Amino acid sequence: MNKTELSRKCPNITVVKKGECIEKPIWGSTCFISIHGIVSETVNTQWIRRTTEASEYLQKDCIQLVIGNGDTSIDRQIEEGLTRMWVGEKARLDLTLSPGELKYVLRSSKNDDLLELSIELTLEKIDSCEPLWRWNKDKLIGSATVSKLRGNELFSAKRYVDAFFRYSVAAKYLTMVDPLSTDNDDVKIQLAAIRNNIAFVQHLYKNFEEVIFISSLVVDDYRDNIKARLRRAAAYIELQDYDRAAKDLEVVFKVEKNNRDALRLAKDLSKRQKEFDLTMADKMKKLFS
């Protein structure tokens, strides 16, 4: 699998009919929209309209959605587009998708080709909500739990990218809980578990620097967290930072001396270190010959 940056994408927006310049949706807003048409020369639009793995939001012509709850690339891009629209506005959203984000296309395409999809819709109305920074502790923790559980479902279905975004939302909510809260220990435990799952997906898509960053956040709170140490060690190995990888594995062996994943990584580390040393020795020999 090639390295893939995991981030929310925003579609290009062309206004067809101006709306009332009074209010735009924000994170958590409930939006009521009408879908007028879907056009694409590269994507099977009929398949999209009947397959929830491609889009939950495009199954009906009139739908209700909550900004932040999208489970697919198409739905997340629709949400991003809606946050830039006024109530009553009609617009065309031009979405881009990588081939890996959809299973069926109408033509063969190379791995680096982007697929295009245009959706014309109207933002009929929105139910306002408080801005995220005003959410109380119970709402933040409750919303985080919902996103985490949905992330687990997507993870079990091997929809790892979609799970990643759900986990990221859950982590976003938990990091906003007051650190002096009486529930802070429970929040930190949940956050560590979510971050470990995020690190797993980042490693799957070869974003090793991100794996190290997110795993380090877990280690900062829980020095002996096995999963975080293993994730980080594996990422260090891929980046040829063998000394740091060895230190992480050393901590794991002190906690679980027969940990299978650690033994496997240690074997891989030893092999790569030897290959690296031989390569460097050969280069030095040629340099001074």
How would you portray this structure in words?
The protein has helices at 45-50, 73-82, 137-156, 160-175, 184-204, 208-221, 226-238, 242-255, 260-287, and strands at 12-17, 30-39, 62-66, 90-97, 115-127. With 289 residues, it is an alpha+beta fold. Mean pLDDT is 88; it is low at 105-111.
Annotate the secondary structure layout.
Layout (H helix, E strand, L loop, with lengths): L11 E6 L12 E10 L5 H6 L11 E5 L6 H10 L7 E8 L17 E13 L9 H20 L3 H16 L8 H21 L3 H14 L4 H13 L3 H14 L4 H28 L2
Antiparallel strand pairs: 1-4, 2-3, 2-5, 4-5
Descriptive keywords:
289 residues, alpha+beta, five-stranded antiparallel beta sheet, 9 helices, 5 strands, globular
Structural class: alpha+beta
Spell out the helices and strands N to C: EEHEHEEHHHHHHH
This entry's quaternary arrangement is single chain
- Please give the order of strands in the largest beta sheet: 1-4-5-2-3
**Whole-angstrom Rg:** 23 Å
Helices, by number, come to 9
Major sheet details:
5 strands, antiparallel
Ends: how far apart?
39 Å
How many strand units? Answer: 5
Note the beta-strand portion: 5-15%
Average pLDDT metric: 88
**What characteristic shape results from the CA principal axes?**
globular
**Segments where pLDDT lies below 50 for 5+ residues?**
105-111
How do you describe this structure in short?
This protein has 289 residues and is of the alpha+beta class. The protein is 49% helix and 15% strand.
